[in-house]
Amino acid sequence: MAQQNPKNSVNGMSGNTPSKSNMIRSGLFTLILICLAAMLIINWTNKTPAKVEVPLSDVITRANDPNGDIAKITVIGSTVDITLKGKDQPTETSRKDASGTLYEQGLINHCEKLEGDELKKCNETYPTIEYKEDVNTWGIVLDVALTVLPIIAVVIFFSWMMKQATAANSQSLSFGKSKARMYGPDKKKVTFKDVAGNEAAKQDLTEIVDFLKSPKKYEKLGAKIPRGVLLAGDPGTGKTLMARAVAGEADVPFFSISGSEFAEMFVGVGASRVRDLFSKAKKNAPSIIFIDEIDAVAHKRDARGGAGREDEQTLNQILVEMDGFDNDSGVIVMAATNRVDMLDKALLRPGRFDRHVNVTLPERKDRLEILKVHFKGKPVEADVDLEALAKKTAGSSGADLANIANEAAITAAREGHKAIANSDVVEAFERVAIGPERKSKVMNEKERKITAYHEAGHAIVGHVLPDSDPVHKVTIIPRGQTGGVTWFLPPEDRSYKNIYELKDILARAMGGRIAEKLIFGTDAITTGASSDLKNVAELAKSMIVEEGMGDNTRNLVFPGEDAGYYTITTGKPYSEKTAEIIDAEIKKLSDEAAARAETVLKANKKVLDKLADELLKHETLEEVELKPILKDAKLPLAAKLYK
Ligand code: ADP
Ligand code: MG
Ligand code: ZN
C-alpha cells in the first residue's frame, strides 16, 4: 500500500471539477437570497405611515363641505385614501363598495367641467378626486418574482441534474472541451522500469520514444514518422501503463482520454472533444495523444447493427484529425484495445494506426518481475515466496498480480501482522482467484462428507491421469460460490494443449460427481457439481467446434454465427444433420470423461476413502501433505487413452 496505484492518480487528476460546479450553484443561490432580501427592504421602506380608518359617509360629508379639511381623495380599487389640506401624504383611509362609484355614494365632484383659474380656485376649496389603477408596485414585484423564481429554480434544478448525469465521467462544465488529462513533465513519471516484462513491446516502443525525443534526426533523413500506434492485448496486461511509460521516457506531455467516456456524451460532443484534444496536443508538441479503450467508439460500423451515430461521428473526427496531421506535427497518437478484431478497418489503414504493438499476458519470469514491482516498498517477511506465487498464477494479467499484492497487504493489516507473511500472500491469491473463504458458513456433517469425497474425486483422477497437471492443494473450506476447491498446478506456461491433456481435464472435472455417485449412490446426485459440468460442457464444445478434435469430425471446425453465413433452418452455417453430429461428439467426450473418472476411482477406492477422511480431519491439504496419500493411487489400464 506504500506504493500507490497509478490508476488512482489518473482519476484523481480531474477531481477538482465537481467542487467548481458546486461553487457556481451555491453562488446562484446566494444571488437569489440577496434579491429576495432587497425586495423585502424596498417593500418596508416604501410603506407609508399607518393611516387612520374612517367611515366613508364621514369622508363624503367632509368632502362636500366647502370648509372641509380634505385636499385630495385618491381612489385605488376599493380603497379611498384621504390627504388632508397642508399634507402631502394620505393620513386617513376608507373603503368603498368595490362595484359602486363615489358619485353613487353621494360624493359630488364640485370642480367637474371647470377650467383654468376657476378650476384652481375650486380645487382649493373642494378636494381633487383622483382615480388610480388598482396597481400596487410591490404587487408587481411580487408577481414578477412569483413568475420568475420558479423558472429560475427549474433551470437551476435541470442544470444540476445534467451535471449529475454527466458527473460520472465528465465533470466538466464545458461540454465541448476535451477533459483529457495532461501529464506534464513534472507529474510523477512512469517509465519503462515500472512496466515489468513485455520486453518485445518495449523494444517496439523505444523507436517512438526516440522520435519524440529527437524528431530532427528523423526529419533530416526524410523518414516518415509513425502517426498512430495501436497497443493490443488482453485486459490488465498493462497497455495504459505502457502508454504512460512512453510519455515518461520521452518526457513529453501526455493527453489521454478513454473511449468509454465518449459513449456517455451527448450528440456532437464526442467529435468536438476530439477536435479539442488534437488541437491541445498540437500546441504542446511534441506530445502524445492516448485514446484508451478505443474499441468503445471505433467498433466495426456494421458489427453492432447500426452503431450509434454519435460513435460514428467521434470515430470520423479521429480519422479526420489523423489524416490532417503534417508530417512534422510532432504528435503521436497511441490507442489501446483488447479487441483488435472489433475495430473498424478504416482505423488500421496506413497513415492511421498502422503500427501494432502486442502487449501479452506475462510468462512465469515476467510474472515474477511484475510481482516484485508491486511488492517493492511493502514490508515483507522472509518467508514470502514470490517464485511460488508466480508459478501458480499462469494466465493472470499484470493487473491481477497487482491486485494480489494489494490484497496481501490488506490481509496482513487485517491479521495485525507487522509485515506481509507468506500466509497473507497465499490467502490473497486464493481470494483473487475464487473469492474469500466463508468460514462462517457452517456445513452440516453430511454436506462436509459429500464435499470431501467430491474434492477427493477431482484430486485422485487428476493425480492419476498421465497428462493432467499435478495436484497443488485441496480444501473443503467453502470459498466464493464453491463448497470446496481442488487446485491443479499448471507446470509451465504453454500456448498449446494437446487432446490428451484436454481429455484429462474433462475426466478430472467429472471426478467430483463420480466420487459422490460411487459413495452415496446414484440417487444422491447433488447440485455441488454444476460448475464442473458447465466447464465440461464448454470445454468439450470448444474441442469439437473450434479445435477439430471430434473422433468422427477430426480436423473439421464449425464456426457459429460469426461465420457470416447461415442456413435458414438452423440459423447456423451448417445443417441440422451436422448439428446433430456435433451434439453427439460433445456427448461422446463427456461420456468418455465420466467413464474414465469412474474407472480410476473404482480402482482407487481405498485412496479415495483415505483422502476424504484426511480432508474431513484437516479441511485443507497442501501439496506435501497430499503426496504420501496419493502415492498409492494407480492408473488402471482401462482409463488409459494410449498405451
Ligand atoms: P490495461 O490497460 O492493459 O487494461 P493497465 O495498464 O490498466 O492494463 O494495468 C492495470 C494495472 O496493472 C497497472 O496499473 C499496474 O499496476 C498493473 N500492471 C499491469 N501490467 C503490468 C506490468 N507489466 N508491470 C507492472 N504492473 C503492471
Ligand atoms: Mg487500460
Ligand atoms: Zn467439483
Topology:
Elements lengths: L5 H7 L4 H30 L5 E2 L2 H9 L5 E7 L2 E6 L7 E4 L20 H10 L2 E5 L4 H31 L13 E3 L15 H15 L1 H6 L7 E5 L6 H12 L3 E5 H5 L5 H15 L3 E6 L2 H4 L10 H15 L7 E7 L17 E4 L5 H12 L10 H7 L5 H17 L7 H13 L10 H20 L6 E5 L9 E4 L10 H22 L9 H16 L30 H28 L1 H14 L1 E3 H8 L13
Parallel strand pairs: 1-4, 2-5, 7-10, 7-11, 8-9, 9-10
Antiparallel strand pairs: 2-3, 3-4, 6-8, 12-13, 12-14
Helix pairs in contact: 2-5, 6-8, 10-12, 13-14, 13-15, 15-16, 17-18, 17-21, 18-19, 18-20, 19-20
The structure holds adenosine-5'-diphosphate (ADP), magnesium ion and zinc ion.
The site of magnesium ion (MG) has 4 residues, from α8.
Walkthrough of the structure:
The structure is a single chain. This protein has 643 residues and is α/β, with parallel strands linked by helices. The chain is built from 22 helices and 14 strands. It has helices at residues 6-12, 17-46, 56-64, 116-125, 137-167, 199-213, 215-220, 239-250, 259-263, 269-283, 295-298, 309-323, 364-375, 386-392, 398-414, 422-434, 445-464, 499-520, 530-545, 576-603, 605-618, 623-630; strands at residues 52-53, 70-76, 79-84, 92-95, 128-132, 181-183, 228-232, 254-258, 287-292, 331-337, 355-358, 471-475, 485-488, 620-622. The protein has a six-stranded mixed beta sheet, sandwiched between helices. A hairpin with a 2-residue loop joins β2 and β3. The radius of gyration is 42 Å and the shape is elongated. The two termini are 53 Å apart. The structure holds adenosine-5'-diphosphate, magnesium ion (MG) and zinc ion. Adenosine-5'-diphosphate (ADP) binds next to α1, α8, α13 and α15.
